[in-house]
From TrEMBL:
Keywords: Methyltransferase, Transferase. This is Class I SAM-dependent methyltransferase. InterPro entries: Methyltransf_25 (IPR041698), SAM-dependent_MTases_sf (IPR029063). CDD domains: AdoMet_MTases.
Length: 252
């Protein structure tokens, strides 16, 4: 499934028809995705001093994170994405911009990040990429640092021959699972705080994605990993989409 090279080629040449907000249509817009779905899940971690956003695309969430920290770093393997973000947020001096190779965080100083975030991007990253990022984040996060990653869980559903018994139209990374993410965290000196198995798109019964929050071991975040299987995630999106026709800012 998606390799680093494939992702680089695909996202460097993607049309970005609605500046990335096209990926928020299921919620009725990015503002409803942010305030209705994402913010409630990360509110314990922001505002904070320094935030790292991995794979920001054209900055649909960057526009919110810039107001929740003193320093924001964004890292993407697609140079066109970083170039657009530099133009979009040119008036904000506290944002750092980096193009990477799809795995490396060498440009981020050790023990410098309070919170790391990625949504709707690393679902296309295979297990070697996720492991590489987590191993580095064990060093890059501050002693009380934490993170929120949206990643694939589709590998959990492979059959005994290593094949998926259903299609994979959303290009989920087939080598990743929620359990493997927790294992990688442990190896990296991190610990999962929670893992929410979620559905996505048209295969409502298949919890092929996972939202994982994690922390540095021995930090002040005192919670063992809690796992929730949530087959109603896309219903949440639909409810927000239904009310967006009334309350979308552009309607007033």
């Amino acid at each position: 499934m998606p390799t680093v090279e494939y992702n680089l080629e695909f996202w460097s040449n993607y049309s970005w028809s609605d500046q990335g907000d096209e990926w928020s249509h299921a919620w009725g817009g990015t503002e409803f995705l942010w305030w209705g779905t994402l913010y409630p899940r990360i509110q314990a971690f922001i505002p904070t001093g320094s935030i790292l956003e991995i794979a920001p695309g054209y900055g649909r969430f960057t526009t919110y994170f810039k107001d929740y920290c003193q320093e924001l770093s964004i890292v993407d393997l697609a140079e066109p994405c970083i170039e657009i973000c530099q133009k979009r947020f040119a008036n904000y001096s506290h944002i750092n911009y980096y193009v990477n190779d799809g795995k490396s965080l060498d440009m981020i100083p050790d023990r410098s990040i309070d919170f790391v975030f990625s949504f709707d991007s690393l679902v296309h990253a295979e297990s070697d990429v996720i492991q590489a990022y987590l191993m580095q984040l064990g060093r890059k996060l501050k002693p009380n640092g934490a993170g929120f990653f949206h990643h694939s869980n589709i590998g959990h559903f492979k059959d005994g021959d290593g094949n998926l018994p259903f299609p994979n139209p959303h290009m989920r990374a087939e080598s990743m699972t929620a359990n493997l993410f927790a294992e990688y965290c442990d190896r990296a000196g991190l610990q999962c705080l929670s893992q929410e198995w979620i559905n996505w798109g048209d295969q409502d019964e298949i919890l092929k994605d996972c939202l994982s929050t994690f922390k540095v071991k021995d930090s002040h975040w005192n919670q063992n990993n809690r796992v929730l299987k949530n087959p109603h995630f896309m219903e949440e999106a639909k409810r927000l989409q239904n009310i967006s026709v009334l309350y979308r800012p552009s309607r007033f």
